[in-house]
Here is the input.
Amino acid sequence: MPQIHKVTPLESRDKPAKGIYILPNLFTTASLFAAFYAIIQSTVGNFSNAAIAVIVAAVLDMLDGRVARMTNTASDFGKEYDSLVDLVAFGLAPALILFEWGLQALGKGGWLVAFTYVATTALRLARFNTQEIISKRYFQGLPCPAAAVLLAAAVWTAESYLLSSTAYIVMGFILMGLLAFAMVSAVPYRSFKDFDLKHRVPFVAVLALVLVFVLVSFDPPAVLFSIFTAYAVSGAVSWFLLRKAGERVFEPPAEESKAPSVKASESRASGNPPG
Here is the structure.
């Protein structure tokens, strides 16, 4: 008589769960669709539509993670899928939009800075996925969705006000280069993850939120460009103030701080600034 093997609860937990969660990955797929639509629109010269699509992709990217946490449907598959979509939506799409809009007029320099932007976006995402959480209040380097929205808002503003001279193209070239550097830098940027939307807030905060909606509705491209420019500059201001106060935001883990690894020694020997 064949023996019947009973599966223990421990063995059942070791088996990987089949299938994927629909809801958060639906938002991620919608973000990918918006990015693809932005690329298609840029190739036919509809740069305003392309810029708006990138901004929509950024909003969807913000929602998919929150939906996953709220519904307890976070998974490793969703994390990897989201990272791949982010590279397309916030690396490839903005680079192609800016290249088609004006950087191609600069020749080899135009496509080289566009490639550099895509490469630094990939490096930014790889670093974010592999590093341990060392600060809840700050991102290390400019988040790629913020950089993409800033570039999209710049193109949208240029299209709205018919700014297409060589001077504005050169400004776009410089802006893309600066954002590429900011993404892979160690400059701290507020993550706003410590803001709990479930708790009560002062009445003034609600009025400020209404004011933001009014301003964005008045002139969406110019206001979004101003807001995200201020956010991009805020990282350098935070870095200066924190250094002046002697505060270190990105501390290494406790184990590594007690026994420096070979990588940490090589970093100090090469003269790289601490995290």
